């Protein structure tokens, strides 16, 4: 599974992201708090970019975390919602990225 990160992610959020994935995989009691820390940090980073699709990219990154932690149903649902949004905004590149991720979920989940 791809472990790409978005271009606006800094080292602190990358490290925290890795901790979130591991906490979710192990069903750690700290998972929710770590996830919220990561989300707040990433929202701040997205806000500084001030681009129209920074929050959409953040949501895609969140879905990738869920995929890596094997929360396939949650990732699928999230990507489905994002796909509808980017389709209505005619964001073809993001739409194709989401389709690719959804295909990856189908393939990976069927192998599990």
For this entry, give a set of tags:
single chain, 112 residues, mainly alpha, 5 helices, 77% helix, disordered N terminus
How would you describe this protein?
The chain has one domain (11-111). Helix 1 runs antiparallel to helix 2 (31-49) and helix 3 (54-68) packs parallel to helix 5 (92-111). The model is unreliable at 1-7 (pLDDT under 50). The protein starts with 10 loop residues before the first helix and ends with a helix. The chain is flat, with a radius of gyration of 14 Å. It has helices at 11-25, 31-49, 54-68, 72-88, 92-111. The protein is 77% helix and 0% strand. The protein is mainly α and 112 residues long. The protein is built from 5 helices and no strands.
What is this entry, summarized?
By secondary structure, the protein is mainly α. The chain contains five helices and no strands. The model is unreliable at 1-7 (pLDDT under 50).
Alpha carbon gap, first and last residue: 13 Å
Q: How does the major sheet shape up?
A: none
Round the mean pLDDT to the nearest integer and report it.
89
The helix/strand series, from N terminus to C terminus, equals HHHHH
- Tally of contiguous helical segments: 5
Strand content of the residues, in percent? under 5%
Structure class? mainly alpha
Shape: flat
Number of strands: 0
Number of domains: 1
The percent range for helix content is: over 70%
| Rg estimate, integer Å | 14 Å
- Which residues form runs of ≥5 with pLDDT under 50? 1-7
